[in-house]
Amino acid sequence: MNRATLTLLVLLLVCALSLVAAQQRARKLFISLERAQIEERKLNQDWLRLEYEQRNLSKSARIRDVARNQLHMVPISPERTLYLKEAR
Amino acid sequence: MRPVGFSTTPNLVLRLPMWRSRLMLFMLFFVFMLLLIRAFWIQGPGNAFYEAKGVRGTQRELELPASRGKILDRNGQVIATSLEAKSVIAYNDTVPDDLAADKVQKLASLLQISEAELRKKLREERKQIFLKRQVDPEVAQQIKQLEIPGIGLNNEYRRFYPEGEAMAHVVGFTNVEDRGQEGMELSREKELAGHPGARRVVVDRLGRVVEDVAILQLPQNGKDLQLSIDSKIQFLAYNAVKNAVEQHHASAGGAVVLDTQTGEILALANYPSYNPNDRKKLTGEQLRNRVLTDTFEPGSTMKPLTVAIALEKGVITPTTNMAIGAKYLVGPKPITDTHPYGNLTVAQIIQKSSNIGTAKIAMNNLSAEEMWNFYTSVGLGQAPKIGFPGAVAGTVHPYKKWMPTDQARIAFGYGISGSLFQVARAYTIFARDGELVPLTIERSPEFKPGTHVISAKTAIEMRSMMESVTEPGGTAIKAQAEGYRVGGKTGTAHKLVGKGYGNKYRAYFAGLAPISAPRIVVAVMIDEPTGGSHYGGDVAAPVFSTIVSETLRTLNVLPDSPIKQKAMQDQSPTQIQSAAVKTNTAVLKR
């Protein structure tokens, strides 16, 4: 066995091992990507749910009830409003 | 006898026949050949079957979910949204027959069905069956914790409508398959619907995804839709109609608010209404979007249109004096007024809503063709093209078929039909100095040019006549809105019951505000008011007043009628003004 063959053999071995390592890494990365995507979906759903909740809390019917009954406010009327003209 | 030696035996001398070993050899060869052919077949031409089997063991096709688009109001507030909701599925061949009784009981109570019913469902022949669709998240979690083999949870979306009853007729609703059934959900189904995608993945022994093979189809989420409706205005219009219907013991009511500058529909309210979140009650009369789908004889709300034709033609002016009298005979039945009048000017005919006066203007000055052309040009007799399911066209019979009696009655709104929406649209010509505005239900806040129908002069004259309707001496003082000059026309139409006019009425008011620079057109209809007055001026005009003053305030429109400033309790107006200026400058400095 001469030197060249030996070098090539070593090279081959190194390549083979790195291929295995790369594949392993690819799978690991893929799994974490998968997890991140599931997380993204979940967060997206949470956002939609929160948006819906916020809407539920801020809808006109509720604001009216809270303003009238809890804060004892009255609707504005033009006679109790001061209209300011925009300065030109 | 020959001696027999030890090293020989006669048996060995005997030779076996050659063919036996040959046969053996051939059979062995044959069997090996068979194996070889089989091996060749499996690896070569017959491979596809095994490959498919191998793929099935390690690869799966997964659905990539897509969500339905949201519906937003003009300010970006959510009025319909899809949230995830799990559905409970039973895979009946996997569910064990000897399932523990307490688990069955728990599952049944979580699904809100009886134990017997659940057992019956689990025994069904079908491979998989929905036990319940779209359960609440907490319930789904509890079912998961029961860990019953063969009971699975499936991801689905459920539609939520935060505005509930107030917005029901505008947005509509979807069915359990997430397809639009009514309202915008139905008419914009194509844009709103999402299309799920699919991908192929490699899974390991435990079913975990380890590798993406290919995306077969990308998921497409539905597009969001932004409407021109303002939830605040919608809410106050809905409440105003609801209160009036309850107060007057009416059978139904509706209102529509249009922005005259942009042609946007700001509110479209109907009562009775329904809750689109409650899927069990989505049937019957309450689903009707009366503003768009009910046609009626517009009655007196037609008069301003008729008078406008004559003004435009130049044959009368607002001050033209006319003899009215107690009866006007056209055809077999005389036309009458609620009160007999002697002489009225054209402006007073509108103000007092005189049937005889309007009929006389039409009969003396206008041809049937002119009237038909005008009514058609303001959109009567054609379904409004705003992309709403079930919007009706109403009826305007061809003028060639009009008898004189028809013409006289059509002039004040009988023998012709349209929806409240059409009346509101026709009234935009008075608001926009003679232009008919194209309407839209989608947000588009830019000024829209309209089609020219009458001159600005006629429109302005009509506006002041319509304002006089709401002033002392008019039929609708109750239409006056706080802070704003308003104008409009009442209508009280006898309802057709069977062949004749019965004792049922519809009360309307259609008008615009503020008169100095009209920003909105509002039309109100209250159906079959009972108990007390049934006149448009008493029943529908107050609703108009509420909607107008609150809408204009919401839109930040400056009042155009003189207001008596109420003294503020602790500060004089000037003090407030200087304080306000200070805050303003402070804001500006920031």
TrEMBL record, chain A:
Transmembrane regions listed in the UniProt entry: none
Keyword Nucleotide-binding carried by entry: no
Annotated localization: Cell inner membrane; Cell membrane
Chief localization: membrane
Subunit structure: Part of a complex composed of FtsB, FtsL and FtsQ.
PANTHER family cross-referenced by the UniProt entry: CELL DIVISION PROTEIN FTSL
Designated name of the protein: Cell division protein FtsL
